[in-house]
Write a structure and sequence with these properties.
globular, single chain, alpha/beta, 450 residues, Anaerobic Ribonucleotide-triphosphate Reductase Large Chain, 14 strands, two-stranded antiparallel sheet, 39% helix
């Protein structure tokens, strides 16, 4: 079901007049590989649980001497590929970075991305430098999959559509499972599913989205992201006018109360513990969000009424005070942190591709909001790595890092795989990229900016 590289990328490698990207050097000199300019050391990467027991250990992990022990532990546990204790296991940060960068460079050459051999070589060294010195990091699926899978999943954030049919609901479960397997997160708006009070065409009453959420949640709980120890990342959204919205708002909080009872009775409280309290209840593997409109928020301000409407007919199914629903949301969030709010009117007002379709959902952390059946490739710049010893922010270095990283992400979008043809087509057509930054607070403090 994976899509092939975009026609533009393939065509570029075949056109004699193709115009590739000129890549200049700023961090490297062209004579020395970035790996040769740092001091390396061997460490033991070890992670212990809350009870002090060792849950992960790899000896003789090679990292640059300026990396923290925390960075060493995370990279060794999460991103080194291969089974522990086997010759195939990666044991050095240089193995990991070479695997990822080497693959991206090969893809870039195939896709005609580089203006000449000098630009290709410069891109390889500059990207190695950025990753080695922790100036930039890709999203986890890149570290998990690139250089391992022949057509790897490279994007981190997916938004999946669903239709009001059993086939579509089960297809969504499969698509989510494959996304979790390779380390990505996914979000869906389930408001198109008829409510638990609406009839089925063949007789009987529909289960409703909150019931199907139990199945989705269970799949997410048993599939480890990227085959590692990372939990699946999932978002579930319901519109404020859906007939089951009150049930949706309360469902996770009610399960949280069950967990408290189990813990009081002596069951272990942690996740991923055999017989643990939180592994015995529902809705623990997803973030929940209610999608509200300006119309609802005005009713809230005016202490007005709010109506929920049937998915199938549009008939009024329920009537609430808007403030009653908001108090319900606030109380549930106080109990368990969910649901959150998404502001549908504002999100779609700021939509950059309004003529294509509405934005109805987000990824699990809600930093990616775009069309259904789309994916975003993420990377992050570490702002504190662009501050010199005198506290000056290195603007030119930052701009160059943006250029190199965006080029790498463009290549990843073209040559990565996607779980459905529609997501593949939208990824190649719209090319959503998310290049953010970390350590903004630390930078402000270092600059003395309140």
């Amino acid at each position: 079901m994976s899509a092939e590289p975009s026609s533009l990328a393939v065509a570029a490698s075949r056109r004699p007049d193709a115009q590739g990207v000129l890549v200049r050097r700023l961090f490297t000199d062209g004579e020395h590989h970035p790996f040769d300019l740092v001091r390396w050391e061997l460490r033991t990467a070890r992670i212990t649980g809350s009870d002090g027991a060792v849950v992960f250990e790899q000896t003789d992990a090679e990292v640059p001497e300026f990396w923290s022990q925390t960075a060493t532990n995370i990279v060794a546990q999460k991103y080194f590929h291969g089974h522990l204790g086997t010759p195939e296991r990666e044991s050095s940060a240089r193995h990991l970075i070479s695997r990822v960068v080497g693959t991206i460079v090969e893809w870039g050459r195939t896709g005609g991305y580089f203006a000449d051999a000098a630009s290709e070589h410069a891109f390889e060294h500059e990207l190695c430098h950025l990753l080695l010195h922790q100036m930039v990091s890709f999203n986890s699926p890149v570290w998990f999959n690139v250089g391992i899978e022949s057509r790897p999943q490279c994007s981190a954030c997916f938004i999946n559509s669903v239709r009001d049919s059993m086939d579509s609901i089960l297809d969504l479960a499969k698509t989510e499972g494959m996304l979790f397997k390779y380390g990505s997160g996914t979000g869906s708006n389930l408001s198109v599913l008829r409510s638990s009070r609406e009839p089925l065409a063949g007789g009987g009453t529909a289960s409703g989205p909150v019931s199907f959420m139990r199945g989705f949640d269970s799949f997410a709980g048993v599939i480890k992201s990227g085959g590692k120890t990372r939990r699946a990342a999932k978002m579930v959204i319901l519109n404020i006018d859906h007939p089951d919205v009150a049930q949706f708002i309360r469902c996770k909080a009610e399960e949280e109360k069950k967990a408290h009872v189990l813990i009081t009775a002596g069951y272990p409280p942690g996740f991923d513990q055999e017989g643990g309290a939180y592994d015995s209840i529902q809705y623990q593997n997803a973030n929940h969000s209610v999608r509200v409109t300006d119309e609802f928020m005005r009713a809230l301000e005016d202490d007005g009424w709010w109506e929920t409407r049937a998915v199938t007919t549009g008939d009024v199914m329920g009537r609430y005070r808007a403030r009653e629903l908001m108090c319900m949301i606030a109380e549930a969030a106080w109990v368990c942190g969910d649901p959150g709010l998404q502001y549908d009117t504002t999100v779609n007002r700021w939509h950059t591709c309004k003529n294509t379709g509405r934005i109805s959902a987000s990824n699990p952390c809600s930093e990616y909001m775009f069309l259904d059946d789309s994916a975003c490739n993420l990377a992050s710049l570490n702002l504190m790595r662009f501050v010199d010893e005198k506290g000056n922010f290195l603007t030119e270095a930052f701009r160059h890092a943006v250029d190199v990283t965006i080029l790498a992400q463009e290549i990843l979008v073209d040559f990565g795989s996607y779980p459905t043809p529609t997501i593949a087509a939208n990824s190649h057509d719209y090319r959503p990229l998310g290049l953010g930054y970390a350590n903004l607070g630390a930078l402000l403090m270092a600059e003395g900016i309140p």
